[in-house]
Design goal:
The protein has 424 residues and is an alpha/beta fold. The protein is built from 17 helices and 13 strands. 40% of the residues lie in helices and 16% in strands. The chain is globular and about 60 Å long.
Length: 424
C-alpha cells in the first residue's frame, strides 16, 4: 500500500527512528521492506519471545530469497553466520557477548514499549548501562540504523517515551529528570510518575515529530470497517460484599510496594472469577448463533474456568510454547473451535489472521492499561478485516471495574493528545 511505501522511504532517511503506526498497519512488513531496499545485512530483530516465529515467517514471505534467517531459542547456541538474526528480549543477557561481536547494519526493536522502564534488564541490554553497579558497564547494541516499532509508544504516561528517545538521540534527550519534570511533573512519595500529572503534551508532540512516524487507521485505511466498543453490565447480585471491598481498595490507589496493592490484585482476580458464569452465558450466545468470537482474560484462573465451562476453545496462555501458539491460531482459523480464548498479554500481540474469521471481541476482565486493550482488540481490527468489529467490555456495575474504566479513560486521553497522527 502507498502509505507503507511512504513509511519505508521515511525510515530510510533517518539514522534512528520510532515507527508508531496503529496496530494492524503492517509495521513488520515496512521494516522488512526497508532491509530489502537498503540491501542491509546483517539485521538483528529483537522481539518478545512469543512472536519470534511470526517474524521468521514474515521474512520468509517478504525478504529476498538469498537471506539466511536464524532464530535464537533458549536452548540454542548463538549463530555465528546469518543475514538476519531474530532473538527474544529475554535472551539478550545470555547472548550479550555474541550480540556485540558483530556490527549490525539494522537493529529492529519490535514491541518497543517493552523498553519503557529505563531500569529494567531488557532496557539495559538494548540501550546500554554505564553505571558501575549491579550489572556493571553494558555497551548499547551498535547499529548503523535502529528502528523502534510499537503501536503503543505510551502505555500510561509520557516518561515511558524517554528510554526510546534517548536511544534515538542521546544528545537531544540526554537526561531523564528534566524530561520527566517538564512532561510529567513531580513523582509521588514512592517515586512514581502519575498519568494524571502529564503536561505540555502539545510541546512534546512537536518535539518528537522529527523522529516518530505515526499513521492512524482512520487516516490511511478509510475503507477499513469501523470498530465499535460497548460496555456490557453484568448482574452483580450476590457480589455486593466483594464490590464494596474492591471500591475501598481502589480509592486508596496503592503503590505496588505496599500490602494494599497485593490485596487489590487479589480482589481483581476474585472479581474476574465472580464474572465467569455470566461471561460464559454471553459467549454461548455467539456459539449458538454460529458466530466465532475472541475472548481475552487477565488471570489464568479465569481463563481455565471459562474453558472448562464453554468446552471447545483455542487457548493461548503465558505458558503456551511458540509452536503451540500457532497451532491454536490454526485451530481457530480452520473452524475447529468457535472461541479463541487467551490471556490478554499473551494473545494480545504478535498474532495475525484472526481478523479473517472473527469480528467480535469480548474482554472478560479489564487491564489497568488502555493500550493493552487496544493491542488485543486490534488483532481483529486490521488489514484483512472485511466486517465491522464489535469490542465488548464485561463489567460489574459499581465494582473495581468502574474504577479501572475511569483510569483507562485518563490514560487514553493522554495517548490521544500526544500521539494523534504524525504524517510523513
Amino acid at each position: 500500500m502507498s502509505f507503507q511505501v511512504d513509511g519505508v522511504q521515511w525510515l530510510a532517511t533517518r539514522k534512528h527512528s520510532l515507527l508508531a503506526d496503529h496496530m494492524g498497519l503492517g509495521k513488520t512488513l515496512q521494516a522488512i521492506a526497508l532491509c530489502n531496499y537498503l540491501a542491509s545485512t546483517p539485521v538483528l530483530v529483537v522481539t518478545p519471545a512469543s512472536i519470534r516465529l511470526q517474524w521468521s515467517r514474515e521474512f520468509d514471505r517478504f525478504s529476498v530469497p538469498s537471506r539466511r534467517v536464524e532464530v535464537v531459542y533458549s536452548n540454542t547456541h548463538f549463530p555465528t553466520e546469518c543475514d538476519v538474526l531474530i532473538i527474544g528480549y529475554d535472551s539478550l543477557r545470555k547472548h550479550r557477548r555474541g550480540l556485540r561481536s558483530r556490527k549490525w547494519e539494522v537493529v529492529v526493536f519490535d514491541e518497543a514499549h517493552y523498553l519503557k522502564n529505563r531500569s529494567s534488564i531488557r532496557a539495559k541490554e538494548c540501550m546500554g548501562h554505564l553505571r558501575p553497579e549491579a550489572d556493571g558497564h553494558i555497551p548499547p547494541l551498535a547499529a548503523g540504523k535502529k528502528i523502534f516499532m510499537t503501536g503503543t509508544p505510551i502505555m500510561n504516561r509520557p516518561t515511558e517515551l524517554w528510554p526510546i528517545l534517548h536511544a534515538i538521540d542521546p544528545k537531544k534527550w540526554d537526561r531523564f529528570l528534566p524530561f520527566a519534570k517538564k512532561y510529567n511533573g513531580w513523582p509521588d512519595r514512592w517515586g512514581n510518575y502519575r498519568s494524571e500529572n502529564a503536561r505540555h503534551l502539545g510541546d512534546l508532540k512537536q518535539e518528537i515529530s522529527t523522529v516518530m512516524l505515526r499513521r492512524t487507521k482512520q487516516a490511511v485505511l478509510k475503507q477499513l470497517p469501523d470498530k465499535r466498543s460497548e460496555v456490557v453490565v453484568l448482574d452483580s447480585a450476590g457480589h455486593a460484599k466483594l464490590s464494596r471491598r474492591e471500591w475501598e481498595l481502589a480509592r486508596l490507589d496503592p503503590d505496588p510496594a505496599t500490602p494494599e496493592f497485593g490485596e487489590l490484585a487479589t480482589a481483581r482476580r476474585e472479581l474476574g472469577e465472580a464474572k465467569v458464569k455470566p461471561i460464559c452465558d454471553h459467549l454461548r450466545m455467539f456459539i449458538d448463533a454460529d458466530v466465532p468470537v475472541v475472548c481475552f482474560c487477565c488471570h489464568l484462573s479465569v481463563l481455565k474456568a471459562i474453558r472448562e465451562s464453554v468446552g471447545n476453545c483455542s487457548v493461548i496462555t503465558g505458558a503456551t510454547a511458540l509452536r503451540a501458539r500457532q497451532l491454536a491460531v490454526d485451530k481457530f482459523m480452520d473452524g475447529q473451535a468457535p472461541v479463541f480464548l487467551a490471556q490478554i498479554k499473551a494473545g494480545g500481540t504478535g498474532i495475525d489472521g484472526l481478523q479473517k474469521r472473527a469480528s467480535n471481541v469480548v474482554f472478560a476482565e479489564l487491564d489497568w492499561t488502555q493500550a493493552v486493550h487496544d493491542q488485543a482488540g486490534d488483532r481483529l481490527h486490521r488489514i484483512g478485516q472485511s466486517r465491522g468489529v464489535l469490542v465488548q467490555y464485561m463489567v460489574f456495575s459499581g465494582s473495581l471495574d468502574a474504577t479501572i474504566a475511569d483510569k483507562l479513560a485518563v490514560k487514553k486521553k493522554i495517548s490521544d493528545q500526544l500521539l494523534g497522527s504524525h504524517p510523513v
